Task: structure prediction
Amino acid sequence: MRICVVGPTYPYRGGIAHYTTLLVRHLRASGHWTKLYSFTRQYPRFLFPGKTDRDPSSMPLRVDAEYVLDPINPYTWWRLYRKVRHDAPDLLILQWWVPYWTPCLTVLSSLVKQRTRSKILYICHNVVPHDGGGTLDRRLALTVLRRGDAFIVHSEQDLWRLRALLPKAQVRHTHLPTYQSLADTAHAAGDGLRQELGITSERVVLFFGFVRQYKGLDYLVRAMAPVNAQMPVHLLVVGEFWTSEDYYVQLAEQFGVRERITFVNRYVPNEDLGRYFSLADAVVLPYISATQSAVAQLAFGFGKPVITTRVGGLPEVVHDGETGLIVPPQDWRALAEAIVRFYDQKLGPRLSANVRAEHQQNAFSWETLVREVEAAYAGICARH
Result:
């Protein structure tokens, strides 16, 4: 099959850039002619909440790509369409995650659909934004997605959201694959990091990833008070803050756990991931809302159990009592009880062994995602 993929890749950073890179690698490894078109720019500086959207890793995930698309320059939308038309792919894979992409993806998919025989597969990371879901968000999503011939989603929540927008859509649901490749490039040196950060507690839990309001870090900070009333546990918060760091620091002081929390406000390059994950006994994701989580799959790639909340697609990949623990969202007391139970019952070794065993199965492999892409195209052809 001839395939064109549009999405971010190195030098851009983040979960979707890694996803695009690994998807293209595995499509090519499966024998498909695959061309990747990426961005000359993702966001204007004033719209990006982080310090930079460039990956600082010295060992980045890379794949051959042609950089064409600027989402705020319509000329590049036309230029990309012409390149796709010249390539004449059987399948064009577009990715959808925030309404910002509505204008360029609407124009691109409309041109391809009207003027070529290529079929369009949308991979929906979020049908509507984590912190959105209002009428405008749904209308923008519908504007773009109604031009797709088939769809792949990574959570049941997004499956039903998409079917609510497009009742007759051909939608396939598969798990987000494990980010094992990132784990393979990382160096594990947790002991040196413990000294560097001044962490004295033997028990360490990790919150990892961009800090945004919907991720519920404030509930985890509150939970550390009752946890430390029963046993010493250190919380390591690692990730670039897209909200006020001072708020969380003051909250920790208010609950008397400031000395039990270390904040590392930065984007972590690939080669340093192992230092943080090897230091932790478990990864805690106290999300208020979610569709799926690349951080959970990254944790599993390092063989770490996950303590998380019953939101979105997280219970589909974190199996309560087997590969992690699940609590209600926005309940810091229940979160504290889960962390205490994790240590009291010495669940770490058993849950970690289950993580390693389960994530060697095909359900979480990139090869499974490739087969879903193939099946989606076969379904389009059968329907037409």
The chain has a mean pLDDT of 92. The domain at 2-177+365-383 is CATH 3.40.50.2000 (Rossmann fold).
